[in-house]
Amino acid sequence: MHTKLPSATLLGRRALLFPLCLVLFEFATYIGNDMIQPGMLTVVNEFNAGEEWVPTSMTAYLAGGMFLQWLLGPLSDRRGRCPVMLVGVAFFIVSCLAILLTQTIEQFIALRFLQGIGLCFIGAVGYATIQESFEESVCIKITALMANVALIAPLLGPLAGAALIQFAPWQSMFVLFAALAAIAFVGLWRAMPETATRRGEPFSAASLWHDYKLVLGNRRFLCGALAIGFASLPLLAWIAQSPVILISGEKLSTFDYGLLQVPVFGALILGNLTLARMTGKNSVERLIKIGAVPMMIGLFVAAISTLYSTHSYLWMTAGLSLYAFGIGLANAGLYRLTLFSSDVSKGTVSAAMGMLSMMVFTLGIELTKLAYVAGGSGMFNLLNLISGLCWLSLVVIFVKRRKNSDININPTAA
Question: Can you give the pTM of this predicted structure?
Answer without folding.
Answer: 0.80
